[in-house]
Amino acid sequence: MNTQPIAIRPRGSARLVVLLVLSGFAVLMLCLAGLASCFFLGSDARTLRNAFFKAAPAAWHQKVAVNIGPVASGAVRLGSRFFKTPPEARAGIAAFRGAEVGIYRTSESPRNLDVSGLAQVDKAMARRGWHRIVKVMKDSDLVMVFLPAKSLTTARMRCCFLVAHGNDLVVGSARCDLDPVLNLPEVRKALDTPWSQLSLARGN
Amino acid sequence: MKRSIASLLVIGLSLLPLATLPAAEPGQADFGNFEAPGNGGEFVEVNLPANLIALAARFVEKQDADVAKLLASVKQVRVNVIGVNDTNKEGLQKRVQKVRTDLASQGWERIVTAQQQEQDVSVFLKMDQNSTIQGLTVVVIDGSKQAVFANIVGNIKPEQLTMLGEKLNIEPLKKMGAVTAPEAK
What we know:
The complex is a heterodimer.
Chain A: H1 4-37, H2 43-55, E1 60-68, H3 70-80, H4 87-95, E2 96-106, H5 115-127, E3 130-138, E4 141-148, E5 157-165, E6 168-176, H6 179-182, H7 185-192, H8 195-203
Antiparallel strand pairs in A: 1-2, 2-6, 3-4, 4-5, 5-6
Chain B: H1 2-20, E1 42-48, H2 50-60, H3 65-72, E2 74-83, H4 89-105, E3 109-116, E4 119-127, E5 133-142, E6 146-156, H5 158-168, H6 171-180
Antiparallel strand pairs in B: 1-2, 2-6, 3-4, 4-5, 5-6
Helix pairs in contact in B: 2-3, 5-6
């Protein structure tokens, strides 16, 4: 008498159940991690924020942090397909690739910013492949904008920014694909029209 | 033996970043680092790299090929604006003098000098043997208002400057192009 098939079947189904439970758990954990990541800054904005905290030491408290990553922005793009929207709005949604912003506040009185500390901010960002294009300072107010040192294309635009005003600090980054906007007929026409003709049209 | 190989490796690795550093362009002016003035003084620093300028050039490619070509030949733009107050006035005046002296000693040609009351403007050009403009530097100190240090690095042909001056109707650019053209020399 052969009893082997009867012995294998329950073991196989048990394995299947364990596999299903584990994969379900993994999916749940991934979803939770994805959801949690919506409330934390990405590594580049975090580097910028931490370097600034060193340059302007104070008890900074986080007010809010929102991170719309590639998954969330992809979901927005996918969802927008089910709604009838004007082409400009559709191009805007298609261009959006993600953004993150963190708002911080300190109760300490604002002081003049440490210049050598701000040089460290530049260095920290440069190590991550970011190039500062703008720095505007006045007393304790500061605006800094960074762009990738390499691989800057219309399809892959990225920027990191920092704005400090009084006791408030805003740090963030944004990513977009400009091509859908550039391919709008109106924009295409404007970009393809020689300046001489544009000035003639304005003159008329 | 192992130790010497390890130390050679360490030295080699520590020198690697130096090897990958981009060489300074001949048209690059060294202004040094500036400190922001206190007491409500402003400080602006704009530093546009080649990739951003190239992107801008691509935008205007079809609108105006000549301007796109001119933009594509620009490698870097750096502008510093520093508010002048009682605490930094003397230091900035010394810095302006130092930058002017350094540029003159590095083969830059002073093409504009304008002084009126407290305003002091100077424009320098750095050209190669073919009269291609490798760098343009503008140093301005406006009394007790602000100091401006601007540097454009690239490989700009004088006729491109004339063309831009004519298109945008900027007289100084037209003249600058004419002055720096090889036949004018």
